[in-house]
Design goal:
The protein is α+β, with helices and mostly antiparallel strands. Strands 7, 8, 9, 10, 11, 14, 15, 16, 17, 18 and 19 form an eleven-stranded antiparallel β-sheet that branches. A four-stranded parallel β-sheet has the order 3-2-4-5, sandwiched between helices. It has a three-stranded antiparallel β-sheet with strand order 1-6-20. The radius of gyration is 26 Å and the shape is globular.
C-alpha cells in the first residue's frame, strides 16, 4: 500500500471519530432538498446512534478483547476500551443501511464508504478484522431495525380514481383562470410566489402579508378563479379544501409547508409538479372527511394530541417549531389526563382518538402514509386510559413493536363515529390546527368528494 493511500485511510478513520463524518453527510443530505433525502439523513443518524450505543456499551462489556499490539495510532488516540466490536464500523454500516432504505441509490456508495472506514480501523491497528466484521453486522442490523421503530414510507403517490366530474378548466400551459393564494406562514412565500409566476405566468398569484386573513383571501380567490390554488402547509390546504368543497371548484395544491402530507400523498413533491398538473388539466377525486362540520383531508384527533398542538403553538414563536414539539411533548406526557367519553354510545376513558381520512399505514402508533385516498373509510385508533399503567404499557409496546397486542390500543375502520364528552366541551384538532368543539359531535365522510389537480403518471 502506498504511503498516500495509507495516509488517506488514517484521515478517513479520524473523520469518522465521534460521528463527525456521518453528521456531515446527514447535513449534506438534509440541505440538498427533497423529503426522502431528509428522511435518509434522519434514519441514518438514528441507526448510527442505536448501533453505537449497543457496540460501545453492552457489547464491549460482554466481550473483553485486547487491542492489536501493532497499533499505528498516536498515543493520545490509543483507545482503552475493548477491541470487540468496532464502534466505527457499527455506526458507519448503520448509517449506510438506514439512509439507503429511504434513497436506494445511496445504499451502494454509503456501504462502500462504511467499508473503507472499517478497513481504516484495521489498517491503523485499532481493531482486529473480526472486530470490524462484527461491528458491520451489528450496524446493518441496527439500520434494518429502524424500519420497525420508524416505517419506511413508499415513494409512490396514493392511488386515486379519475374525477367524477371533469375539471372546470381546460389544460392551461400558462395557468390562465387560476388564482393562487400564497400563505407567508409557510416560511418560503417569496420564493414560492416567484417560482409560481415563472411556471404559470398567466395565473394570478396573491401573496399574503403577515396577519392577513387567509380564509377571506381564499374565498375571494374562489369567487374570481376557475379553481382555488393554495401554497402552504397542511393547515392552509385544509382551509382551501373546505372552501373548494363549498363552491364546488377544483383545488390546486402547492407544497409549501413543513410536512406537506396531503401534497405528497397526491404525488406533488415540488412546485414544478403542481404546475405540471395544471398544464395537463388532470383532476382526480379524493375523499373528504368532516369533524363537527369542519373538513379535514389528512387526520383529526381528540385528547392528548390536541394538548400537544396547543402547547407547541405557545412555544414555537420563541424557540422554534421542532424544539417546541419536544418541550410540549414532555409537558403533555407529564400532565395530560384521560378524558371521559361516549364513543358510539359506549362509555370510554381514553388518552387520545386518532382519526385518519382513509386507511393509514402502518398499523400501530406511527400512521405515516395511505395507499388510497378514496377508500370511503375512516381509520380510528384509540389509546385507552382505563387500564392500569396504560401510558407506560403503551410506550413499552411502541418501543418493542408489539402495539397490536397491547390492551391499551384499539384500531377500527368505520364510515362515521359519534363522540360525546362527559366532561364538557372539548378541544379538537384537524390537520394540525386546533379549535373549540362542542360536547357531542360526529366524524364522518363527506358525501361529495374533493377534486384536486395531480400530475400524470
Amino acid at each position: 500500500m502506498s504511503p498516500l493511500t495509507g495516509r488517506g485511510l488514517d484521515l478517513l478513520g479520524r473523520a469518522a471519530d465521534r460521528f463527525k463524518l456521518w453528521l456531515a453527510l446527514a447535513a449534506v443530505l438534509g440541505l440538498s432538498g427533497g423529503r426522502f433525502r431528509r428522511r435518509a439523513a434522519l434514519r441514518g443518524l438514528f441507526g448510527a446512534a442505536l448501533a453505537s450505543a449497543v457496540a460501545n456499551g453492552p457489547a464491549k462489556l460482554a466481550v473483553r478483547r485486547r487491542r492489536p499490539t501493532a497499533s499505528r495510532l498516536p498515543w493520545r488516540e490509543q483507545p482503552s476500551t475493548s477491541s470487540f466490536p468496532s464502534g466505527h464500523a457499527a455506526a458507519g454500516f448503520a448509517f449506510a443501511v438506514g439512509a439507503g432504505q429511504e434513497v436506494p441509490a445511496l445504499a451502494g456508495p454509503l456501504v462502500g464508504l462504511a467499508a473503507l472506514v472499517g478497513y481504516s480501523r484495521i489498517h491503523s491497528g485499532a481493531h482486529h478484522p473480526g472486530d470490524v466484521a462484527a461491528g458491520a453486522a451489528l450496524g446493518a442490523g441496527a439500520g434494518l431495525l429502524t424500519r420497525r421503530l420508524w416505517p419506511v414510507a413508499p415513494h409512490e403517490a396514493a392511488h386515486v380514481r379519475t374525477a367524477l366530474k371533469p375539471a372546470e378548466v381546460e389544460p392551461s400551459p400558462k395557468g390562465r383562470g387560476l388564482v393562487i393564494v400564497v400563505n407567508p406562514s409557510a416560511g418560503s412565500s417569496g420564493k414560492a410566489a416567484t417560482e409560481l409566476r415563472d411556471e404559470l405566468p398567466e395565473a394570478e398569484v396573491v401573496e399574503l402579508e403577515e396577519g392577513d386573513d387567509l380564509e377571506a383571501a381564499l374565498k375571494d380567490a374562489a369567487g374570481r378563479g376557475c379553481a382555488i390554488g393554495v401554497a402552504g402547509g397542511d393547515g392552509s390546504v385544509n382551509a382551501a379544501a373546505s372552501i373548494a368543497a363549498e363552491v364546488g371548484k377544483p383545488l390546486f395544491v402547492v407544497p409549501g409547508g413543513t410536512l406537506n402530507h396531503f401534497a405528497y400523498a397526491l404525488g406533488l413533491e415540488s412546485i414544478a409538479d403542481a404546475a405540471r398538473a395544471v398544464r395537463e388539466g388532470r383532476a382526480v377525486s379524493v375523499d373528504r372527511a368532516v369533524i363537527d362540520g369542519h373538513t379535514f383531508v389528512n387526520t383529526a384527533s381528540v385528547g392528548s394530541y390536541v394538548d400537544l398542538v396547543d402547547a407547541r403553538e405557545k412555544l414555537e414563536n420563541r424557540i422554534g417549531k421542532w424544539p417546541a414539539v419536544v418541550v410540549a411533548l414532555g409537558r403533555v406526557l407529564r400532565r395530560s389526563q384521560p378524558v371521559e367519553l361516549e364513543i358510539d354510545g359506549e362509555r370510554r376513558r381514553v388518552w387520545m382518538i386518532f382519526i385518519g381520512n382513509c386507511r393509514y399505514r402502518p398499523a400501530g402508533f406511527t400512521p405515516s402514509w395511505r395507499d388510497r385516498l378514496d377508500d370511503g373509510e375512516l381509520d380510528i385508533r384509540i389509546v385507552d386510559g382505563s387500564h392500569p399503567f396504560s401510558r407506560t404499557r403503551l410506550l413499552l409496546s411502541v418501543m418493542t413493536g408489539r402495539l397490536a397486542t397491547c390492551g391499551a390500543y384499539e384500531q377500527r375502520f368505520v364510515t362515521s363515529l359519534h363522540v360525546k364528552s362527559l366532561e364538557g366541551r372539548l378541544r379538537l384538532a384537524r390537520d394540525g390546527e386546533t379549535f373549540d368543539g362542542p360536547e357531542a359531535f360526529t366524524i364522518t365522510k363527506a358525501t361529495e368528494p374533493l377534486r384536486v389537480y395531480v400530475p400524470g403518471d
